[in-house]
Amino acid sequence: MTPGKISIKIVKIMIALCAMLALGMIVMTRIKEYRAEYEAEMTNTETKKGVDVKVVIPENASVKQIAHILYKNGLIKFEGAFVDRLQDSEYRGMLKHGTYTLNTGMNTLDMMAIMSAEDETGGVLQKLVVPEGFTIDQIAARCEKQDICTADEFINACKSVTKTKFPFLEDVPAGVDVKYRLEGYLFPATYDITAETTPESLVEWMLDTFTIYYNDKLQAKAAELGLNSYQVVSMASMIERECRIPDERPVIAGVINNRLKDDMPLQIDSTVLYPITDGMYDRQEVTYDDLEVDSPYNTYKYTGMPAGPICNPGLACIEAVLEPTEHNYYYYHIVDAETGEHAFFETYEEHVNSGGKTVEQMKQEAEGGSDDGE
Fold first, then answer.
1. I need a labelling partner for 227 at 20 to 30 A (CA). Which of 35, 193, 257, 274 fits?
2. 357: which DSSP letter?
3. What is the C-alpha to C-alpha distance for residues 278 and 280, in angstroms, rounded to an integer?
């Protein structure tokens, strides 16, 4: 190698070393800045002028979940700093669920004080119980009956929610013909109603509760199956309306999967009852004429999944979707009306011979009530 080539190689090496050194200095500087910002948020006692932000802390939320809610609402920069500061503060173990108005200019210690204080409004006025399988219309009616708000106010609050605040709503297909975009996402639970509760805060609380239960583990499982949150809650909502016996939930999930795989209509009665009862499910049976209702939810008339969820499912039905039983069943019908027990079948002939009602029979009888999945 000539001296000239050696010199060029040395220059290139020196340039590379300088570049690496410069990059290292940049990284070190950023690490120092990050540590300084982290430390400042942990120790800051000043309160500046900021913007008021209303947050809803769900019941039984962990410290990490609370920190994530504050981060998501732009109130803190470092979730870890909030958690670390709380553990060493007088407010450890004292944070309460509820609706709070915080400010982006507050230090984290002030936020903790507010979320730890006793409710000056007199505490819980009443409890709103949202059972598994309730629809938005049923929740709205219950809110009006308990004088929490009018049904219209609750529904309007549902319609006002944006996907900016709740990113999982991005999974709702654009232009999909659904009654409510939030159907399926209002998590069934018991909610404390205080003097500060508004329709908007109540809806956001229900959505925040969904994010707590539909956690990273379940989201990862859904991703493995190629499902997004909208597909999961849509399928779970059908299982919720169809099934009363816990052990049958993953089996019905398997039936749905088998029918979808073979491009068979799902023919689930609840998907017909949802549109014809306007989401109230005040009828339990369908007639042959009902099966002809022209609705994107009607899985007798249209093949594939309904347009969207037909209720708000609980955690057990969501888990059934993510861990379905693998089998060769394509049909089922109720064998015990009192308990809701189903019998499952691989063939249409088995289903019919065991007493399962068919569409043809419904047509002949002019009306009838079928709880089967044929």
1. 274
2. -
3. 6
